[in-house]
Amino acid sequence: MRLLVFTGLSISLMVTDARLDTLKPLRAQMSLIVAPLYWLAGVPGRAWDAATEQFSSRSELLAENEKLKAEMLLLQRRLQKLAALTEQNVRLRELLNSAALVDDKVLVAELIGVDPNPYTHRLVIDKGEQDGVFLGQPVLDARGLMGQVVEVMPYTARVLLLTDTTHSIPVQVNRNGLRAIASGTGYPDRLELRYVADTADIREGDLLVSSGLGQRFPAGYPVATVTEVIRDTGQPFAVVRAIPTAALNRSRYLLLVFSDRRTPEERATDSALAQKHVDHQQTAAPVTEVKPSTEKKTEPRRKPVE
After folding, report:
1. Residues 6 or more apart in contact with residue 161 via CB below 8 angstroms
2. Backbone angles phi, psi at 135, to 5 degrees
3. How far apart, in Å, are the Cα atoms of 165 and each of 121, 122, 151, 300?
């Protein structure tokens, strides 16, 4: 009976609520009472959603952060590579400009090794006997002379730098032609001029160029710049120090110079033989003669005089 009573009451309330507006004020009052219960019932769900979103957002942010770090490293590597390529392009342009100013035949070589001995200044380049490299061949970079080839292998060669203690080169002051010998000191940025008279006309800032004496280095190439001149009245010779013009410890691309190694007598003999050969060819060339014409000229007939 109670079930039937309550069932009938429920049906009547639903019909009344659906058909009439009588229960609207009551439903509004009831919503004020039930609203806190709804909110309280939704607290666990909202708390779970917030926690899930928090953890998922944190993991996504961490993953995105790692991805951005990786991209930044890649971009930095590309930037460093671009900077290296830019510097390499500048050095190659300087080297090409230097090669254009050299009158002799040159060959571009790349540095592939450095002697680890701190007391020996030697380099290894990627050109050898197969490329025509020979002992004593001058080596220079975009700024000046670096040294000479002291050992030749089939595909590589060793270069002795100017600053090695066993190396010396005849030089002259570009300003007045004063001759001297520049020797290595074992330091990559210092040369010394030996046996320069205390009264010699040499001062700081003078450019030293190769003199060409000894027939090993071509004349006129920059070698060093004088940085210090110490004169002592009690000593017969002055102490002259200079810094090489070439970047001995920084250059990667070098120039091998194929200069004319003939003596002046040999050059004169070869020139005379070449001129003689040209004269012989001109003499042996056939000469076209102009033959006189064999046709007879006919004169007009004259009438007899009566």
Report:
1. 121, 122, 123, 146, 147, 167, 184, 188, 248
2. -65, 140
3. 8, 11, 17, 103
* Residues 121/115, Cβ–Cβ less than 8 Å: yes
Q: What is the pLDDT, as a whole number, of residue 153?
A: 92
Close Cβ partners of 11 (under 8 Å, ≥ 6 residues apart): none
Query: What does pTM read for this prediction?
Result: 0.56
CB neighbour list of residue 121: distance below 8 Å, 6 or more residues apart: 115, 147, 160, 161, 163, 164, 167, 184, 186, 188, 248
CA atoms within 13 A on the CB side of 216: 14
Q: Provide block-wise average pLDDT over 10 residues at a time, the chain (306 residues).
A: 89 79 72 75 79 73 81 69 62 60 73 87 92 90 89 92 93 90 91 90 91 83 92 87 90 81 60 70 57 46 44
Please provide residue 117's backbone torsions phi and psi, each rounded to the nearest 5 degrees: -70, 120
Torsion of CA 233, 234, 236, 238, to 10 degrees: -60
Beta-carbon contacts of 198 under 8 Å, excluding residues fewer than 6 positions away, are 231, 232, 233, 235, 236, 237, 238
Given this model, what pLDDT does residue 106 score?
Answer: 80
pLDDT score for 299: 46
Between the CA of residue 170 and those of 22, 166, 180, 228, what are the distances in Å? Answer: 122, 14, 6, 19
Q: What is the pLDDT, as a whole number, of residue 93?
A: 65
Contacts of 111 (CB under 8 A, 6+ apart): 123, 124, 125, 126, 251, 252, 253, 254
Which is it for the CA torsion 144, 166, 263, 256, positive or negative?
negative
